[in-house]
Every structure is written in C-alpha cells, then in structure tokens.
Amino acid sequence: MPSHEQLRELLDPATTVLMTVECQQGVVGTESALPELAAEARSSGCLANVARLVSAAHLAGVQVLHAVAERRPDGRGANRNARLFRAAGRLPVQQLAGTRAVRVAPPIEVADEDFVVRRLHGLSPLAGTDVDPLLRNLGCRTLLVTGVSANVAIPNAVFDAVNLGYTAVVPSDAIAGVPSDYAPAMIRNTLALVATIATTEDVLGSWKRPGPDRPQAT
Asked: How would you classify residue 96: left for phi > 0, otherwise alpha for psi between -120 and 50, otherwise beta?
C-alpha cells in the first residue's frame, strides 16, 4: 500500500480521472442481466463505495468518466467471437442503447460535468473507444478504476491504461467479481503487479483538503 503522501500526490485532482466501469442498471441494478454479479456488487459494498468515490470526486474537482457497455437492437457492430458475447446475446435483459439497462445505476450520481462513454464492442472501456483521447485532452496521468467486473472488464481496463502510459489505481473495495473470492485473488495475483492498490478510505483521505474555501470530500 502506498503512503498517504504518495497517494495524495498520485491522485492529484488536476491530473486524475475516476472511471466507473459498467456500473449500469442492466449489470449491477435490481433488474440485472447478471444477478449474481449484481448481488455481489451490492453485498460486498462495491457499488456503495463507487458512489462515495464519485461524490467525493465531484467535491474535490476530480473528473469523473462513466464507461457503459451497450449494443444496438439489431446487434450490428457487436462482437460474436467469444463465448461470453454469444451468451450475453441470450440473456433476458439486454444492454440496448437508449434503454434503462444502460443508465448509470443508483446510488451513483452522474453530474453535468461527467463524461459518459458508451461502447458497442469489445471487452475494454479503453480499447477502440473515446476514453483515451478524452483522458489525454484532460491532462490525465492517473486513472482510478472502479466498478465491475474483476473477471473481465476491470483487468482489461487496467492493462490498457498501463499500456497507454497511465498510472492505474484500483480501490480494492470498489471493484467486484464472481464468485466473491475472485476479486481479492485477481487483485493479489495480477492487478497488484501493474496497478497501485488502495482502499476507498485511502482515496477519500487523499482528497481531503480542509480549508475555509474548499469543502471536504467525505
């Protein structure tokens, strides 16, 4: 774990972007296509912690970006080259563009200044999307990765961020996967090798700047 001062420097609001990954109604909401994952995201505290981080980011002046996975009703442009994609096409809840399923799920709040980046293909929020050029234009150096799932999208996001030259930070209690012991194993054996691992409280503490003219992130 980094020291408080190291994390504060790493998560400088001027050069940090907080990204939520697939925290959408059809994935982690009450009407999820993946009820086991949705239940884990909620029972583990992951979703609540993502919401806390987003709220604190808004207060601290950290840019927030919500990465959403969706598909067209006709499926055009979507991948079919893996079992995961074919199985997703048979699920009772589809992540169709413009529907409730692809809205960011409560209790996460989307502010007017947030970016919402939608992808129609692939496994990663970064590969082949607008995320990388947006990050560069924003002057991002550190990408804070939160959301689901630790099985697929989160490691994809971290690997792509590192390959593109960003420093990745992962709050260990703000990501989730299935089964429940998978996320800790993924963090310990893989993500810790390429990303800085912290906790939600660590991140919130790094953004607290007490002073008369600036509210504290809580």
From this structure: beta
* Cβ-based neighbours of 73, under 8 Å, separated by 6 or more: 96, 97
Residue in the block written with tokens 């050069």: 15
Do 7 and 203 touch, CB atoms closer than 8 A? yes
* pLDDT tens for the 218 residues of the chain, in order: 788 899 999 999 999 999 999 999 999 999 899 999 999 999 999 999 999 999 999 999 999 999 999 999 998 998 888 888 888 888 888 899 999 999 999 999 999 999 999 999 999 999 999 999 999 999 999 999 999 999 999 999 999 999 999 999 999 999 999 999 999 999 999 999 999 999 999 999 999 875 545 445 55
Q: What's the whole-model pTM score?
A: 0.92
